[in-house]
Design goal:
Elements (H helix, E strand, L loop, with lengths): L1 H20 L3 E2 L8 E3 L3 E7 L5 E6 L4 E6 L5 E7 L4 E10 L2 E18 L1 H4 L13 H6 L3 E8 L17 E3 L9 H14 L3 E7 L37 H7 L9 E5 L8 H19 L6 E4 L21 H13 L3 E4 L15 H16 L11 E8 L2 E7 L5 E2 L8 E4 L5 E3 L1 E4 L3 E5 L8 E4 L10 E2 L8 E2 L8
Parallel strand pairs: 2-8, 8-11, 8-12, 9-11, 12-13, 13-14
Antiparallel strand pairs: 1-3, 3-6, 4-5, 4-7, 7-8, 9-10, 15-16, 16-21, 17-23, 18-19, 18-22, 20-21, 22-24
Helix pairs in contact: 4-8, 6-7
């Protein structure tokens, strides 16, 4: 009798082991509560034994797609999604196994990436609050706003998967989620009245090259790690975050991307523009969805000079990175930058007013991706200058209702003559232009506006969008 019981137990354990080994394996991106990009052909993928066959059944159209795992054990089914709505289910069959993914919504999906200002959660960092964050968390219950966060990870080889799952926005889940991304997604959901899904992939302190693979960096003098021992620190190591965090997400059906990064490249401003443009181009290529919308936040003013207190390094003036980001719009099609000149803090690199940044990103998406009209969505931008004797007239684009200083004096302009010495300028604000002059400059040739490390915004559109710092010269400091 004992022998029978022992054999029976062994048989049960064997069957359990076989069952566990044959469980259906899918990417963690495909979990209950997920959002699929509506009205699109999107991939669903996972892993199985080489040549093994699977069936993917979608509840919204009752269609079944059959796929086989390739030589490396990866399978992928491309499915057509419905109009916004839900909830739906996807059922995956693999032999005798069955996996149901429930409470799926179809809507708008956005990738949200960058460094700490994207990562900063609604509850804030320790000792660094998000303005209004607690109130937002309390009111955050919304079954049509969902998100997933990819955990911090770095590697020398592309990861296939990660630990995580989709969450529904609620006071229990939003506190740890990206504030910038949440405010962006919340305004989209409210305005478009469709479900919105947010994929959050960010790492505080990360440089742009950490989000690029080695193929993207072949034309740059940047070291590529050869082993895990070369990853130090992970957020500043080229390719490390691309491999560890972005790679498992590439290919998921999205509408577009938002990005908030640049602070960690403040000391290499003239390289940043080229790196950033290359990254966006190659991300789009890897996703295979064409030139999807890419909106990004310009870094806010901050006293970066405190990082080198014993040495003044002109190129470390973060205005040069802000300029690189401003000009990158010219190189990246279907893109747009939001200006945060009014949000900076002299000694805090994490501006607490995350709602303004997130919603400004949403303004651009609502106008340029979804075609909504009737509101301002981009900051005024330098157009041209006209020299009139000792005066300079600076004109701006994107000013449908004019510019304003809110009746405050404007002190942030400087002008220079051929000697390249800048002097403070007196500014007279007109509807779409500013007239500048200085008794120190008889024949002006160049203008700069708030072109310093830490400054406070002075000029805005009537809709409240600040004008970026800018310069009309190309007199770069020593690199």
């Amino acid at each position: 009798m004992k022998s029978v019981n022992k054999n029976f137990i062994l048989l049960i354990l064997l069957l359990i082991g076989i069952s566990a080994n044959s469980q259906i394996e899918v990417s963690s991106l495909f979990s209950d509560n997920m959002v699929l990009q509506q009205q699109a052909e999107v991939p669903v993928w996972g892993w199985a034994k080489k040549g093994e066959e699977l069936q993917i059944e979608t509840s919204w159209d009752s269609k079944t797609t059959t796929v086989k795992a390739d030589a490396e054990g990866r399978w992928q089914a491309n499915i057509q999604t419905p109009n916004a709505g839900g909830p739906y289910e996807i059922t995956i069959f693999q032999g005798e196994e069955e996996l149901q993914i429930k409470d799926i919504m179809a809507g708008e999906v956005w990738l949200c990436s960058g460094q700490s200002n994207m990562e900063m959660p609604l509850k804030g960092f320790p000792g660094q609050p998000v303005e209004g964050g607690n109130e937002t968390i309390v009111r955050s219950a919304n079954k049509n706003l969902r998100f997933i966060t990819i955990p911090r990870n770095a590697g020398v080889k592309p990861e296939k998967n990660f630990e995580g799952q989709w969450e529904i926005s609620s006071p229990q889940t939003t506190g740890d989620f990206s504030a910038t991304a949440w405010y962006f997604g919340s305004l989209l959901e409210e305005t478009l009245d469709v479900p919105v899904g947010l994929i959050h992939v960010s790492y505080g302190g990360s440089s742009v090259e950490a989000w690029m693979n080695k193929e993207m960096l072949v034309d740059f003098d940047i070291a590529i790690p050869k082993s895990e021992n070369d990853i130090d620190p992970p957020m500043r190591t080229a390719t490390a975050l691309f491999n560890g965090m972005l790679s498992p997400v590439i290919g998921y059906g999205i509408k577009g991307s938002i990005w908030y990064q640049g602070e960690s490249n403040y000391d290499r401003p003239f390289q940043y523009r080229k790196l950033f443009v290359k990254m966006v181009q190659e991300w789009r290529e890897l996703w295979g969805q064409g030139e999807f919308p890419f909106y990004y936040a310009q870094i806010a003013p901050f006293n970066y000079a405190q990082f080198t207190p014993d040495k003044v390094i002109e190129k470390n003036n973060s205005a040069y990175v802000r300029e690189a980001q401003l000009k990158a719009q010219e190189d990246i099609s279907n893109s747009g930058m939001v200006v945060l000149m009014d949000l900076g803090r002299k000694n805090n690199i994490h501006p607490p007013e995350k709602q303004k940044g997130g919603e400004r990103l949403a303004f651009r998406a609502l106008a340029e991706t979804y075609g909504l009209e009737g509101f301002e969505f981009r900051s005024p931008q330098f157009k041209d200058l006209e020299i009139k004797g000792s005066n300079v007239v600076v004109a701006f684009d994107h000013v449908p209702n004019g510019i304003t200083s809110y009746a405050k004096p404007v002190k942030g302009f400087e002008i220079a003559g051929e000697d390249r010495v800048f002097y403070p300028a007196t500014a007279k604000v007109r509807r779409k232009s500013v007239i500048l002059s200085s008794p120190e400059v008889e024949k002006p040739v160049a203008v700069r506006y708030l072109f310093e490390d830490y400054v406070e915004a002075e000029l805005f559109s009537t809709g409240g969008l600040p004008i970026s710092s800018f310069r009309t010269d190309d007199w770069n400091p020593e690199k």
